[in-house]
Specification:
By secondary structure, this protein is α+β, with helices and mostly antiparallel strands. It is built from 9 helices and 18 strands.
């Protein structure tokens, strides 16, 4: 086969001089020491389209999963050891002019003691205790609570909350110390004579309150004693609570049902009608202090505000309250509140101390109360401002 001239030339021996050979070797060495040029490949446009579609599908799957996890409570949520102030404020938002007195830590949460004003009777202070439970997901309000109103009490108030389940921190007994002479509150079980000490807390404005977590049962009789600084008992009542309101709050049992028999005699009713027409203390001279106190209670029941005010003392050396101020600030007590406070006074005993005196009586719940009175210059008896002792 005949070869082409090109191949023939390749088969021929190549002859170079020494100078030419050195030059060729230099060119070979230069090529070997130089990095080869890398050509950048152009990425196809369809690759970017596929990558964008995949990213979009991934986000459509991931976003719903993220929101679902945010909505579901997690067992890993860290709950603060103390209830946050904003959470507590949220729970108490419906209580007018509320003031937190004390927060007591218990095994399953906290018990918050606070006061607020009655929505209908702005001048009536309510004393309340509420159990707030600590859970894995946060702080939750419960139905376990109790409260009572401060109306005409002069020594100590009290309220009993019993447990509604095994996880409850109750029983709890709490109240307010009103008398400045009482420095300590002591409970005593009637049957076993066991004494139970109480804790005392002071609000920001200097008001004093007391409480104790105890094992007293709702049907167990116990005594509440108010003690002076040196330990002298100056206030004492026997108390028995019955199965009462919702949320574990109990009401006092009626231990003195005859106190319900309140009413005016024919003579008292005649004087009462005269006083409603025109108040004249001469009509009171023939009446006993207890009869005058009964007229005061009847005026309270009938919501005769001006007449009720007229029964108060005029003596300038005694505490006075301006009539206009009294009528504008005085709230409306319910018939139940009047009944619970004053019924039983008709069977009381008057203690004459000269220019003053008081009626000791037992109310519907077996509580011993006092009703303070003052002798006027004309010899008639009048009611002291803040008469309940």
């Amino acid at each position: 086969m005949k070869q082409s001239n090109d191949f023939q030339s390749l088969n021929e021996k190549i002859t170079m001089t020494d100078k030419e050979r050195e030059k060729v070797q230099e060119l070979i060495n230069l090529r070997m020491n130089t990095s080869p040029e890398i050509r950048k490949a152009t990425t196809p446009r369809k690759y970017y389209v596929a990558l964008g579609a995949a990213a979009l599908i991934f986000m459509l799957i991931l976003i719903p999963a993220i929101f679902n996890n945010l909505e579901k409570p997690s067992d890993s949520v860290v709950v603060a050891d103390e209830i946050p102030a904003e959470r507590l404020e949220e729970m108490l938002i419906h209580y007018d002019n509320n003031e937190i007195i004390h927060i007591e830590k218990v095994d399953s949460g906290v018990v918050v003691f606070f006061t607020y004003h009655n929505k209908k009777e702005k001048n009536i202070e309510m004393v309340s205790a509420m159990f707030i439970r600590k859970t894995k997901s946060g702080w939750e309000e419960t139905t376990e609570s109790g409260e009572h109103a401060i109306i005409d009490q002069a020594d100590i108030t009290h309220e009993f909350i019993s447990p509604i389940n095994e996880d409850s921190p109750f029983p709890l007994i709490f109240g307010k110390i009103i008398s400045s002479d009482i420095q300590e509150v002591l409970l005593k079980k009637v049957e076993t004579k066991q004494e139970i000490k109480t804790e005392k807390v002071i609000s920001k404005n200097g008001e004093r309150y007391w409480f104790t977590f105890t094992d007293i049962k709702p049907d167990e009789m116990f005594e509440i004693h108010g003690l002076t600084r040196d330990g002298q008992v100056i206030y004492s009542i026997d108390t028995l609570y019955g199965n009462g309101g919702s949320g574990g709050s109990h009401e006092l049992l009626e231990a003195n049902p005859i106190a319900e028999n309140f009413g005016l005699t024919a003579e008292e009713l005649e004087v009462y009608e005269l006083l409603k027409t025109e108040f004249d203390t001469q009509h009171l001279l023939s009446l006993s202090p207890i009869s005058i106190a009964k007229l005061y209670v009847q005026a309270t029941l009938d919501d005769e505000r001006e007449l009720r005010y007229d029964f108060y003392t005029d003596r300038q050396d005694m505490m006075q309250l301006d009539k206009e101020e009294y009528l504008s600030e005085m709230g409306n007590s319910t018939p139940e509140q009047i009944r619970d406070t004053f019924f039983g006074i008709q069977d009381g005993v008057f203690h004459d101390q000269g220019d003053s005196g008081y009626i000791s009586y037992t109310n519907l719940y077996g509580q011993e109360w006092g009703f303070s009175m003052v002798k006027e210059e004309d010899g008639s008896w009048a009611v002291s401002f803040m008469p309940i002792q």
